[in-house]
Amino acid sequence: MVVVAAGNEGLAVGTPANCAGAIAVAGVRHSGTKVGYSDLGPQIAVSAPAGNCVNSTGPCLYPLLTTS
Questions:
Q1: In this predicted model, what pLDDT tens digit does every residue of 3-60 receive, in sequence order?
Q2: The pTM is what?
Q3: CA 28, CA 50: separation in Å to the nearest integer?
Q4: Phi and psi dihedrals of 66, rounded to 5?
Q5: DSSP assignment of 22-35, as one string?
Q6: How far is CA 60 from CA 23, 27, 53, 64, 65, in A?
Q7: Closest among 55, 56, 52, 16 to 34, alpha carbons compared
């Protein structure tokens, strides 16, 4: 099993995400809708949280917080 990001161009899903056997992952906002830069198409199998800084200056309004 190979899991890959759908892409970050806001276009159709490209390689390697559209290859046979790949599991393509799209990015979604905090509200559950697709972020504008995430690629989209019928190859998408799952979605995951993505960064969503809607403001052009100052701190990010909806950051993607992670831990390690």
A1: 999 999 999 999 999 999 999 999 998 888 888 899 999 999 999 988 888 788 888 8
A2: 0.79
A3: 5
A4: -135, 165
A5: EEEEEEE-TTSSBP
A6: 29, 17, 5, 9, 11
A7: 52
